[in-house]
Write a structure and sequence with these properties.
Pfam families: WD40. Helices cover 3% and strands 48% of the residues. The chain is an all-beta fold.
Length: 444
């Protein structure tokens, strides 16, 4: 029985909705988490008062964590927190820009922000503001995507961001080679209501896709903005997640409030390759950085799921759900695979957990202090189970939660040999319980 372990839970204090592992080599131990919190206006002291209540304020906070496998009870250590406007989406650029990692934020002020990762004597690394661009007045920036999702970008290819907003528009931005300047290239009306998501075709970055609250999935050629290439009504509710496969040129995944994940061949957008129900609205989907057939989905009240899309892509069958995790009293909005892979070693003696992790982890809460995950074991078509195993008190006390799996962490490249690992690290975050969860998943 292969399985997954809940390694750690962190209290993010504000409701968390976005989580992203850094994809750059040497920095893949860094994890960013974004939050979105409504601060409700105080009610008037006099119930008969005719004073107009102040509008609700959307608060946000950006956290930066460092993963350290040697800290066995709390491997995630907070290294920075930064108050911002509420964060609705964020993505790391997949390549260094002027020698630095860049993190893009889409926020409730209607802006796209770029932050640069800099070295810090105190904490090792720190995100600092680099540039910002307001998309439109009186709107929320809802999503963003970088044009760098597939490896092999050449220097003559422009560095671009596509973003969507709450009034149904898409915005194409250009980033200069220092990252210090964002320029709006084009904006156009894409949807009647909120444009929940926008994403590049990573193989042909002049093509972008969008999903809206109107239930439409659309494709666009940014060389002729405003004229859609196709419109699909295959989803029955709002389309809120899209990602182009970085491994296979013509594969696209989409998710919706209708609780279905669709896989598409972009050469024929009339009919999806596969339709998989996941029992929850699909807010985010992420292809595994190395294993081309694995898809991670943040499914709101249905927790998160790991799908095997191999047969779905090859035989047009429903994708197989390998693992399903539900979290009580929460909505899972963020999920991401780590680019750090675990490679099996010979069994090593267990090491005791440190009793005092120091002041850096004083703000972190262990898994026992927040509601624990409810886990469900799924089986693939061959009957082999992919279990889900919460971290037990025995394994925590004996310090064996990593050693028992006989694994070690590597900052892997993208060669098939380096990616040949059965273990993956992933993170999810959720509303209501304001929690960030760290998981280790074992699968084939």
């Amino acid at each position: 029985m292969t399985g997954a372990y809940a390694l750690q839970t962190v209290d993010t204090e504000l409701t968390a909705d976005a989580v992203e592992w850094c994809p750059l080599r040497g920095l893949r131990h860094l994890l960013a988490c974004g939050t979105y919190q409504l601060r409700r206006a105080d009610e008037p002291a006099d119930p008969q008062s005719k004073e107009v209540e102040e509008p609700q304020i959307r608060l946000g906070r950006l956290f930066l964590y460092s993963f350290n496998e040697n800290k066995s009870t709390h491997p995630l250590v907070e290294v920075q927190r930064k108050d911002t406007s509420a964060i609705l989406d964020m993505k790391w650029c997949h390549i260094p820009v002027a020698g630095h990692a860049l993190l893009g934020l889409a926020d409730a002020s209607g802006s796209i922000q770029l932050l640069r990762l800099a070295e810090s004597e105190k904490s090792g690394h720190m995100l600092e503001p680099l540039s910002s661009l307001a998309l439109e007045q009186h709107c929320l920036a809802l999503s963003l995507d970088w044009s760098t999702g597939k490896t092999g970008r050449t220097r003559d290819q422009p560095l671009k961001i596509i973003s969507s907003d709450s009034i149904g528009q898409l915005h194409l931005l250009m980033v200069n080679e220092t990252g210090s300047r964002l320029q709006k290239v084009a904006s156009w009306q894409a949807h009647q209501f909120e444009a929940w998501i926008a994403a590049f075709n990573y193989w042909h970055t002049e093509i972008v896709y969008s999903g809206g609250d109107d239930g439409l999935l659309r494709g666009w050629d940014t060389r002729a903005p405003g004229r859609f290439l196709f419109t699909s009504m295959r989803h029955s509710m709002g389309v809120c997640s899209i990602q182009s496969s970085p491994h296979r040129e013509h594969v696209l995944a989409t998710g919706s409030y209708d609780e279905h994940i669709l896989l598409w061949d972009t050469r024929n957008m009339k009919q999806p390759l596969a339709d998989t129900p996941v029992q929850g609205g699909v807010w985010r989907i992420k292809w595994h950085p190395f294993h081309h057939h694995l898809l991670l989905a943040a499914c709101m009240h249905s927790g998160f799921k790991i799908l095997n899309c191999q047969k779905a892509m090859e035989k047009k069958q429903e994708a197989t759900v390998l693992a399903s995790h539900t979290l009580p009293n929460s909505l899972v909005y963020g999920a991401d695979w780590s680019w750090l892979l675990f490679h099996s070693l010979q069994l090593a003696p267990s090491r005791p957990c440190p009793s005092n992790l120091g002041t850096k982890t004083a703000d972190l809460k262990g898994a026992s202090e927040l509601p624990g995950p409810s886990c469900e074991c799924m089986e693939d078509n061959d009957g082999e189970g992919y279990g889900v195993k919460p971290l037990t008190e025995d394994s925590r006390e004996n310090g064996t939660w990593l050693q028992a799996t006989a694994t070690t962490m590597r900052d892997c490249g993208q060669s098939p040999e380096e990616a040949n690992s059965a273990f993956s690290l992933l993170a999810t975050c959720s509303f209501y319980d304001h929690a960030l969860h760290l998981w280790e998943w074992e699968g084939n």
